[in-house]
Amino acid sequence: MQQIFIGDVQGCADELESLCARATEAFSDDFELWVVGDLVNRGPDNRRALERVRELVEAGRAQYVLGNHEIHLISSGLGLRDLEENDSIGDVLGAPDASEWVDWLRRRPVVVEGTIAGQAFAMVHASVGPGWSLSELVARGEAASERLSGDREVARAFLALDPSEDRVREDLARLTRGRAATDSEWSSQEPETPKGAWHRAWSAHDPDYGIVYGHWARQGLHVSDGLRGLDTGCVHHGRGRDGFLTAWLPDSQPRSAGARPFDAPDERFWQIPAKRRYYYPSQDPSQDPARDAVQDPNRDPVRDSRYDRA
Ligand SMILES: [Mn+2]
Q: Cα of 253 to ligand 1 centre, how many Å?
């Protein structure tokens, strides 16, 4: 069974379909999709992206954790939040079965653990606290899921809390939105320098597990020992950068004696170029000269992150 980890889709259902078709071609049905969250929002077809992943989840062939955009969708569906200008999740929330989708999403985990070739890891959308053991991370994710997944009123009250008021609500925010961290603080803002990235503080504690995450398109693909950051901003194509959907395909066996699956360097990535520009800074895309920009399908696929070298 090949594990295939994919970064932030954000409603780019065509690229998700291309990736699934490539996986089927390579592995037939013998693959399992691991989705880092932010499957929805900003892009054109959230409903179709959700349906595809749900079909695989229900067939026991996908793992899917919640990202900040799923939390936005759930919050809007529970009446806590109005849709904003760049939200595209109206295709889910405006449908007759919207509440059923909100309830299905509420029951998705925030953290999933697993092993690759014997090495333990967790998948989470955004960030993990420095010094957290794998069991502590899983327990924090479960505590958030417990309050999110049951009674609707409990979930609404939980999401309405300010993260500073409640430890579990803060954990949900950190797991789905964090980017910067020190041993004592964290933030959803980008750090001023690479040294402030959450994963630098996390790595300094010499964790015995790996992390697969997304959420940070401006950081880009992040490959270092124990870490795979997969958000390469498919939906951001044309915002001064190329966007693509990235998949990581770890080996099911160690590459060499003593090697671990999360060691770097690592080149086992697939990248699906964004089919077109999706994200418009203004409400009038016709005024955008790059609206129909097409990506060169032969361009160099993998971008280094400045965080790899820092
Ligand atoms: Mn995100």
A: 30
Residue 53 resides in a domain: yes
Asked if the structure places residue 302 within a domain, the reply is: no
Q: What residues are neighbours of ligand 1 (ion), with CB under 5 Å?
A: 38, 67-68, 215
Domains contained in the chain, number: 1
Ligand 1 centre from 272 Cα, in Å?
19
Centre of ligand 1 to C-alpha 12, Å, is: 14
Q: pLDDT in tens for each of the 310 residues of the chain?
A: 999 999 999 999 999 999 999 999 999 999 999 999 999 999 999 999 999 999 999 999 999 999 999 999 999 999 999 999 899 999 999 999 999 999 999 999 999 999 998 899 999 999 999 999 999 999 999 999 999 999 999 999 999 999 999 999 999 999 999 999 999 999 999 999 999 999 999 999 999 999 999 999 999 999 999 999 999 999 988 777 789 999 999 987 777 877 888 888 888 899 999 998 886 655 555 555 455 555 554 554 455 444 443 3
Q: From the CA of 215, how far away is ligand 1's center (Å)?
A: 4
Which CATH number do you get for residue 14? Answer: 3.60.21.10
The C-alpha atoms of residue 157 and residue 171 are separated, in whole angstroms, by: 16
Domain region containing 50: 2-292
CA separation for the pair 173, 185 (Å, rounded): 13
CA of 126 to the centre of ligand 1 (A): 7
d(CA 193, CA 285) in angstroms, rounded, equals 33
Q: How many whole angstroms from its chain centre is CA 54?
A: 16
CA of 59 to the centre of ligand 1 (A): 26
Residue 70 falls inside a structural domain: yes
Determine if the pTM surpasses 0.85: yes
Helices (H), 186-274: 198-203
